[in-house]
Specification:
homodimer, two-stranded antiparallel sheet, eight-stranded mixed β-sheet, globular, 13 helices, alpha/beta, Rossmann fold, 417 residues, 14 strands
């Protein structure tokens, strides 16, 4: 990673709506007001036709690229792919990333004050869906003066939002890039979600979701949930390569229950650090939204779901060792999209990294995405934004330290999923 | 399942040793006394050459076949394969199954009184290994007057014991049947073990293992550990077939956090019922023993490990959809065994049932095992046991109710793994 092609220092922004007119959710419940945290990178062109929305995964945030200050050493979660000359080239495109409702990175969430009772929502927060998230994103792009997005892109849970845009708001988007995702959350995905939630419920500090301001948070339960998640993001093969059966700081077995194997240490580290940056109730809401995601349910078939979305261009990507979102989910999607006559590019990328591959296979992703967007920009006659005299982003010198590639990989994975 | 070929009513037995001379463990610690719970089915022949040891999996017990009383409606965990005319034909063979040390089904465990302090061991119980388990099984067969086993068989954790017999006690066994197993616990298996243990540690009722006699047990943590396990025993395909995205007792989403999807209900049911039959500390000890299992570590290669085990006959079985113990583990084993010149029969059984397949693919397993044992008995000149005048087992009428095959499958899976 070089800082020459960083978007530089970026600003956390937010947009609040539904203050007077409540936001109606799929469940029938309402939410008022609704705040959406977001960031933007690059500049909108004159006819507002170069906007790309990036949708984040389970534990992601609106901070997809750049740094929040000169002292900040950790870039946004998809910094590898967003920036000048990168896959999502901010010299050409205006890139937006927003935090989903219910998550804990600035958008309205269970930790916020419930205006009806004057204390945090906790479990009184309404259950939200992927459909609700996307309808809130539409409010955001309208607020930014954008009628139609050039593209929506995202991996994993982000890919679900991408498909929701294509299926239910086909006139709002020219192209979509669903990566390592599915059109219907599988029973195995629901099972892992539920185990994570049960680990949180089992923590006595969770207290039915009422722990804001209390002495204890359900950190132990949330850490277990995250550990389960981390196993599922890796492949058996990558675990062998990365950890094998190596012991940590030991020559031989200790015959006790302290952390011994490197894989144990990795899981504990990630589980514990997650509790410092994520909220347990948000984990419940975000996973529940994913579990409810099933695009084919209302119509009975995926092809019927996309029948009005045939004019959209699709770049579908899956990874051979991803057993959490196996390639055949993407293949079913591709089959439905081609059945309705859509323009689909599909690649099942050979990778040993499991589900994490979508953040780690940077070179392949860059090739795929940049050539897809280049073609798109050409076909849609997307003008470059006006040059500015003062391009702060590319000039800034950041106080970041050089990092090893293993360390970079760890941070990337930590930021993911 | 018909009762005509049941072993009938069986008796839970136990054998205690190391009362004066402590049992030395691989860790260097000792245990005294040591009790091994076991059961036997069929009869030993005159020259004691027809004995087969069955090794159980993670949550299994010595109760592998038959019923404990006439009112008992639930047979032993491998009743499908052990009985007159079944895969392990009790008309021909004397079948033994014993509970591993540290487990909670009658063998010495953390819940037993530590003679040094007069209260339950808890975490003062020494860490045991697969090697320790097998050396205790040798004490048991010696107690039963058996010098050499005709065969040792088992799936999953049972298969590890089978391989331990072959690698480290090659003169004690003519043949082995390792099923759906590995010669070295993989980092993914360790990862899932550790998440289960962390879920138990995270339960405040666990109290560092001191909960015997307390008001609360770490049931919530143990249930989460078991739920994780249950996901790993299934395949993505079998989950689709068995549960899909079906809701339980609901027409549409409830938009709340109660159990909704059938897969959630399945996991919760199995997690909770497990807490009524298994001990949380035992879960820690048994999983730790599995994590330590690595037959190639001392020699550096699997072939070197089995160099003195070439005279043993092997029937190795794996299942195509088993992602927890993927087929390539068995293939590596087969490759090492053939390299040393052993007689190996290997089958990668095409099955959609994931790791559970070893208990569910009864017909295939019966064909494979019975023909392997038939050849073995012929080649080793194994005489049939003397007929008895009163063969209780095959005459008994049991007060069991007819069960649907889905119900049977559920009970089998519950009893497993």
């Amino acid at each position: 990673m070089t800082h020459e092609n960083s978007v530089g220092i970026v600003e956390a922004q937010s947009f609040t709506f539904a203050e007077d007119d409540p936001f109606c959710l799929e469940s029938g419940a309402t939410l008022s007001p609704v705040t959406i945290a977001y960031e933007t990178y690059g500049r909108l062109n004159a006819d507002r036709s170069n906007a790309i929305l990036i949708a984040h995964a389970l534990s992601g945030s609106a901070h997809a690229a750049g740094y929040h200050s000169e002292q900040d050493t950790k870039p946004g979660w998809w910094d590898d792919c967003i920036g000048p000359g990168k896959a999502f080239d901010t010299n050409r495109f205006f890139v937006i990333c927003s935090n989903v409702i219910g998550s804990c990175y600035g958008s309205t969430s269970p930790a916020d004050i419930n205006p009806a009772v004057g204390k945090p929502y906790g479990l009184l927060f309404p259950v939200v869906t992927v459909g609700d998230w996307v309808r809130a994103q539409i409010k955001l792009i309208e607020h930014l003066g954008i009628e139609k997005l050039l593209c929506v892109a995202g991996g994993s849970m982000g890919g679900m939002q991408v498909l929701e845009w294509a299926a239910h708001h086909p006139d709002r988007v020219h192209a979509t890039i669903p990566i390592a995702t599915t059109a219907a959350h599988s029973p195995m995905l629901i099972a892992f979600s539920e185990v994570g939630r049960q680990a949180i419920y089992a923590d006595s500090a969770w207290n039915q979701g009422n722990y804001y301001g209390a002495d204890r948070k359900p950190d132990a339960g949330l850490a277990v949930a995250r550990m389960v998640g981390h196993i599922t993001y890796l492949s058996e093969e990558s675990m062998h390569e990365k950890f094998g059966r190596r012991l940590r700081d030991l020559e031989r077995y200790g015959y006790e229950f302290q952390t011994e194997f490197e894989i144990e240490s990795y899981l504990k580290y990630n589980g514990n650090s997650f509790t410092r940056r994520f909220d347990a109730n948000s984990y419940l809401y975000v996973t529940k939204a994913m579990d409810y995601f099933d695009l084919s349910a209302p119509t009975g078939s995926l092809a019927a779901t996309f029948v009005n979305s045939a004019h959209i261009k699709y770049l579908v990507v899956s990874f051979t060792s991803d057993w959490l979102y196996p390639s055949y989910h993407s293949k079913k999607l591709v089959s439905a999209l081609t059945a309705v006559g859509a323009d689909v590019t599909y690649l099942d990328v050979k990778s040993a990294w499991g589900h994490d591959a979508f953040l780690l296979e940077v070179e392949t992703m860059t090739d795929l995405i940049s050539s897809f967007l280049e073609r798109l920009a050409r076909e849609e006659n997307v003008a470059r934004p006006e040059p500015t005299s003062d391009n702060l982003a590319t000039k800034i010198t950041l106080a970041t330290l050089p990092r090893s590639s293993e360390e970079e990989r760890r941070l990337k994975i930590e930021a993911l999923a």
